[in-house]
User: Fold these one by one.
Assistant:
Number 1:
Amino acid sequence: YKLDQLLINPAFMDSIFQVCGIHTAYNNERVYLPWKVDEIGVVKVPRDVCSYKVYARLKEDGDEYKTYDVIMLNEYDELCYYVRNVVKRRISL
């Protein structure tokens, strides 16, 4: 991707959703997929290739839905993106 031309890079957004997916799959045989997001914030647009960290906080842990807040930091611990209320919905029994 041409980082200098994008506001929201699809690879970064995928990383934000993957961290939630890893949590939902841990010790769980059910599959959850992204369902909706209430808010996406762009604080510092990533323009350089570097390492990024993504952290998720579980807010609601239901059988049908799981809700997270997620942040993405660059290698200098600067906030790049945040996502409020990422809802993952169960698609399997």
Note: The longest strand covers residues 79-90.
Number 2:
Amino acid sequence: MSDPKSQSKPMKEQLTYANILQLGAWTGIFLLFASYAIYVLGVMDPHIPLETIPTLWTKGVHAYTEAGAPVGWTWLGLLGTGDYLNFIGLALLALLTIVCYLILIPGFIRHKDWTYAFICIAEVVVLAVAASGILGSGGH
């Protein structure tokens, strides 16, 4: 049996990572529930009328974009509509990974753990480029 005192302790950045991840995840989940309630209860008018949605289910994404669905980051301009308000919670959950990796980088550099520092930096770059849409991926 190993001595508990000999086990390494997490870096303060790892504890901050865990705390931010927990707070961010619960905040994102709350925002998703709240925005869904706003949408379902009709508090805010949707961008795409609710009665139109079932007719688009059997069609491809092209028909949905022709009906007025945004492409890429243009959803930001539709946050005042009931059907796109929920993107705030989704964006927060997606952004958490990048934020948490950014928090880890200084600790890994301080401990001269270059492999993990490089992995975190690479993750941030890859996720940021993917989210930016620079490469034109995502099927839009």
Note: The mean pLDDT is 88.
